[in-house]
User: Fold Ca2+:H+ antiporter from Nocardioides terrae.
Amino acid sequence: MQRLQPLLSRLHWSVSVPILAMLLLAVTWGGHPQGVLVAVIAVTLVGAVLASVHHAEVVAHQVGEPFGSLILAASVTVIEVGLIVTLMAGGGHGNASLARDTVFSAAMICVNGIAGASLLVGALKRRLAVFNPEGSGSALATVATIAAICLVLPTFTTSHPGPEFSGAQLTFAAVASLAVYALFVFTQTVRHRDFFLPVAMDGTVRDLDGDEHADPPGVRPALTSGVLLLLALVAVVGLAKIESHPIEDAVDALGLPRSFVGVVIALLVLLPESIAAVRQALADRVQISLNLAYGSAMASIGLTIPAIAVASIWLDGPLVLGLEPTQIVLLAITMLVATLTVVPGRAKTLHGGLHLALLAAFLFLAANP
Assistant:
């Protein structure tokens, strides 16, 4: 026992939680948990999400910005695609629009919720939240373009009945989304990397390698965190799949529309990004918060829709992607307000409050359409 104590003292929660989550996943996979076990899975799921945030930040600190934001965004997309595909494969009423509802919810939560909370926190701390309008504006324009191609156009196309793409149209949307996303990543990481780095109050790029920041953790800790991040993500996807039936039952019991399941999934998978973005805003790095917010929205649409398009080859049933009129109006207002927020390069608490008000409107109308 005395020999085990040094080992246990070094066993950080961020290491033990992913391992415990994987063990719980192995034990409960394929079953239908009830009662206390559902609560245990939910608590473990939250712990796995928090662990993924920790390890993603370790890896991000090693590779630097804006690569770190891309890692977090990719992590969210892995979770999202895994959940959507597994739920759609299970069939059932309302799953035809699950991808649309989840992706649209993710976009609204990212652009209004994560960005709004970050701007509000940053402005409360420094009176003004300062960021680079060139980088943030480019990210927002990419989000708007991908959202229009993948979510708005299916509502108005006529080749296929209903708000759906034909096979050729879905292929075009998937390829176009990937191309636009790849172009943005090239812009963010190669051509104009400085546009996506934190800025000081006078608009100059801040040095992220100064004394105020800790040294990178090293290659070995970063690789360890990379492996644990992968385990945490697999655990989150698997445990969320197990929790999906209780979530659907709870949505039905509360009398909410089945489309609200997509909102719950989006809230779940974006929890790591939300925590990381607010922490960056508290550290006066609002630009990184916006990188996370807009990058996650971009990846949620631009990577999820192509993945679902490929999965639709073996998935039965229709794939409804077109937004409803109320959703299109919310998306249009969100993009307008976000544009007016980003253009000056600095935001007041008002701007954060406006985005949070739009998020509240989205959530309320999702529950009461």
Notes: The beta strands are 129-130, 346-347.
